Give the backbone structure.
Amino acid sequence: MKYILIVFLCTAAFVAATEVKKCPKNKHGIKYDDLEDRVNLQNCTKPPCVAKKDTFLKVEFKFTPDHDVKGAVNKVTAEILTAKLPFPGVDGQSACSHIYEADKKTKVENCEMKAGKDYYYSDGFEVLRIYPRIQTNIHWELVDPSNGKSLICFEFIVNITN
């Protein structure tokens, strides 16, 4: 009984969906109807997500390509006033080392993914001390670099605090 409770609590911790929204101008790529069930932000279920300086905000999501893919790049921006600024250390970086088979244990080899198959992404970003205390909209997109097509795209609000 004790083990069943532990497994249940661990599972509930991950499946606690995070309130995210679809990217407004995502003209190409997959548009998930169940986006909130696919995305998990560590310790955040309701916006704004609170991110303390000198911590790591873990971002996990499940995606299913609609075409065969041989690479993936993060496109991550933060909206400051009206400008969308690239998120340092994440934006433009290869996502391949953070993508797993749906079992969440086996890394994808050579960043090759098959259409219609579920994959799991797990990474995040450092909330640096130099970041201002601000509430910002984060745009997170995974892009196929061969054609620029979106594999998944979502946005969430973060409140950076001390």
User: Anything to note?
Assistant: Helices lie at 2-15, 35-38. The longest strand covers residues 149-161. The two ends are 41 Å apart (CA to CA). Strands lie at 21-22, 39-41, 49-52, 55-63, 73-80, 83-86, 99-101, 119-127, 134-144, 149-161.
